[in-house]
Specification:
The chain is globular, with a radius of gyration of 14 Å. Helices cover 30% and strands 20% of the residues. The protein has a three-stranded antiparallel β-sheet with strand order 4-3-5. A two-stranded antiparallel sheet has the order 1-2. Helix 1 packs antiparallel against helix 3. The protein is of the alpha+beta class. It binds zinc ion (ZN). Zinc ion binds next to loops.
Amino acid sequence: MPKVKRIPQRQCVGCREMRDKKTLLRVVKSPEGDVSLDFKGKKPGRGAYVCPSPDCLKRARKTRALERALSVTIPAEVYDAMEAEIIAAAPKGGNDATA
Ligand SMILES: [Zn+2]
């Protein structure tokens, strides 16, 4: 029997789809209560996951799913900054995040 590798799955707070943890972007609330993107998955604090797509972040913003997941109020400028970071981190010239 081949060894079955269990891939940890997490739910995107935007589209609510279960995806491989590795393909998702972690959003973390620091012990101080600041919310930021965690591209390396190493920041301390409580985390939630979202697809690396501005659309999923926008959806999570609209439904407040991210705020519920982290039990925190997220100011508009933090959402804007996270959105800009996701766009900046996305590969240029193509968007296959919603494939
Ligand atoms: Zn999503």
